[in-house]
Amino acid sequence: MAGVGLKPAALTSSQRGSLFRALSRLEDAGLPADRAVAAMSDLLGPGHAQRFRAMSASIARGASLTEAGGRFGLWSARDRELIRLAEGSGALARAASMLADAYEYRARTFGKLRSRMILPLFVLALGLFLLPLPGLLNANIGAMDYLLRALGPLLLLVVAAGATLRILRRVAAEGIPQIAGRLALGLPLLGPAFSQLSRLELVEGLSLLLNAGVPAQQALESALKALTNSAASRIYLAALSKLQEEGLSAALKKVGAVDAEEYAIVSASEAAGRTVEGLERVAGMLRQVFQYRLDLVSEWLPRGVYLIVVAVIAGGLLG
User: Fold this and answer.
1) Fold of domain 190-296
2) pLDDT of residue 10 exceeding 70
3) Is the distance from CB of 66 to CB of 52 less than 8 angstroms?
4) Using an 8 Å Cβ cutoff, are 128 and 135 in contact?
5) Is the pLDDT assigned to residue 5 strictly greater than 50?
6) Cα–Cα 20 to 30 A to 288, which of 6, 133, 192, 268?
7) Across the strands, what pairs with 229?
């Protein structure tokens, strides 16, 4: 069992969604944590079975679910913080259900984006393959030179795609580092989507923790730690110092975590003693806007690839 390392598991959003959905259902059924984890040993395939068994044994020896999941690399940084507080406040099933919803939504969204990118990338690969073909047919280049010119760029494209997938997996497991997070927020088209995602994560985390009875100061601090983008977490950190003086809704507004309309909803709910209801309503609004921004990205990104194809082919013909 000691051979199962501390390295985070390379799980997709779909796998994480399945993991938390199963955990939520088993918790609702009243199964003890060690038996719940053992019951999930085959959930993600044989490659992860030993990890689950080791985790179950660790819990049986007295470790908490949060500690065991962190030790055996099943939780991301965001997951770990939310699970830690939810486990301590008796809201683990609801927290797992919320995380399952978030990961399943992410898997559906990015799955749709990937499907829209298949044809543009195929056209790009075909263009790279056909571009040096006239030179071969006209005997201006030899077969080996043609293969180098055709397969070289294709190989670079495959390597770049593989590296991108590895980076996305790492981001899902460990979050976006400070410098990369700042760059992500400043990207055209993608930047607003990253910002919207951070706001959504913050509001959802607050809603979950406050509903579980966690005090506002601790809930806000933990929700900030749980953000995927550490740069956004630093931006919103000032809300902690404003919370005691001005209340939760005003603190969120001061740091830009909610806009004027969202502030009005949270403020009215806070005054009526129904802060969680207001946050859940705002989370629904943020989710719709985030989906809209992702739809824009998925609409324009393939067009950008087509423009690259045209530019590459035009450059090859003119050259």
Assistant:
1) Receptor-associated Protein (1.20.81)
2) no
3) no
4) no
5) no
6) 268
7) 176
In contact, 279 and 199? CB cutoff 8 Å? no
Q: Please tell me the predicted confidence (pLDDT) of residue 236.
A: 84
Judge contact between 199 and 73, C-beta under 8 A: no
Which of 97, 89, 88 is closest to 26 using CA atoms?
97
How would you classify residue 187: left for phi > 0, otherwise alpha for psi between -120 and 50, otherwise beta? Answer: beta
Kindly tell me the number of DSSP H helices and DSSP E strands found in the chain: 16, 0
Domain boundaries in the chain? 190-296
pLDDT of residue 4: 44
Task: Give the phi and the psi of residue 227 in degrees, each rounded to 5.
Answer: -65, 140
Distance CA 72, CA 62 (A): 15
Which tokens is 307 given? 């423009």
Task: Report the candidate in 50, 47, 67 with the shortest Cα–Cα distance to residue 59.
Answer: 67
Can you say whether the dihedral through the CA atoms of 280, 281, 287, 293 is positive or negative? negative
Helix ranges, 131-259 (H): 133-137, 143-174, 178-185, 190-211, 216-225, 230-236, 239-246, 248-254
Cα 221 versus chain centre, distance: 20
Question: Mean pLDDT, to the nearest integer, of 20-41?
Answer: 90
What local confidence, expressed as pLDDT, does residue 1 receive?
Answer: 42
Distance CA 200, CA 294 (A): 14
Cα–Cα separations (whole angstroms), residue 137 to 140, 141, 142, 147, 270: 8, 8, 9, 13, 74
Q: Using an 8 Å Cβ cutoff, are 220 and 248 in contact?
A: yes
What is the Cα–Cα distance from 39 to 53, expressed in whole angstroms?
9
CB 92 within 8 A of CB 69: no
- What single-letter amino acid sits at 269? S
Integer angstrom CA distances of residue 60 from 35, 41, 43, 63, 67? 9, 15, 20, 7, 12
Confidence band (pLDDT; 50, 70, 90) for 272? very high
